[in-house]
Write a structure and sequence with these properties.
about 0% strand; about 220 residues; mainly alpha; 3 domains; single chain; elongated; 12 helices
């Protein structure tokens, strides 16, 4: 096997179990032809492994299409998630909005990569959604992303209406907890609408131009 794969290992160890599975599947697909040639070689036919049940099962698996198709689908779905993991596991601790944006981009890529298999990508997105809501979904995170114009209007321009609506709800939830005065709440609500729809001072050329150049925390 090593002779045919250029001395490469099929199993690619990584920090997380998910990354290990992803890299190993990529390695399998990369060396698919080499593996097939291995199992039709004289070396394999003369090996004791080719005569035992486990060896026969592996040989059969390598040559059947139903094995490779799910492996390739897994790679298409997992590559975007690996990008998110790299951001989270990087040397610098990312801000929550950055992770939020990365995850939205990952889901978009998964839909694109598996566009021909709608049922599959919907199932994957559903699993991601359940995990996200359980571990990461907090109104405060959504409120922070809503108030980051460089990120918020990027989603708005991409017509991600459902996400924008959810972020708006998160901001309202946080605002009603932190601000108890109904009069101030009403003023903030009007300003939120102006901000979301780029009205008033938020619709000026300077405000639009500076969405990505000024730190939203300033």
């Amino acid at each position: 096997m090593r002779k045919r794969t250029g001395q490469k290992d099929l199993v690619r160890a990584a920090v997380t179990r998910f990354a290990t599975a992803c890299l190993t599947c990529q390695s399998l697909v990369r060396h698919k032809d080499a593996l097939k040639h291995l199992f039709i070689s004289d070396e394999w036919k003369g090996s004791n492994l080719s005569k035992i049940e486990a060896g026969k099962k592996v040989e059969e698996t390598v040559f059947v299409v139903p094995f490779w198709n799910p492996v390739e689908d897994f790679i298409r779905a997992s590559k975007p998630l690996i990008v998110v993991l790299r951001i989270v596991d990087g040397d610098e601790r990312p801000a929550m909005p950055e992770v939020y944006v990365a995850m939205e981009e990952a889901k978009k890529k998964i839909r694109e990569h598996l566009a021909h298999k709608e049922r599959l990508w919907k199932k994957i997105i559903s699993i991601i959604g359940r995990r996200w809501e359980c571990q990461m979904e907090r109104p405060l995170y959504g409120a922070v992303l809503f108030l980051n114009p460089g990120k918020f209007f990027m989603f708005k321009e991409n017509e991600n209406g459902e996400l924008i609506a959810n972020l708006h709800i998160s901001l309202v939830d946080v605002m009603t907890r932190l601000v108890v005065d109904p009069v101030i709440q009403d003023k903030i609500t009007l300003q939120i609408d102006d901000y979301r729809y780029s009205k008033g001072c938020f619709g000026r050329d300077m405000a639009i131009r500076q969405r990505t150049t000024i730190n939203p925390s300033k």
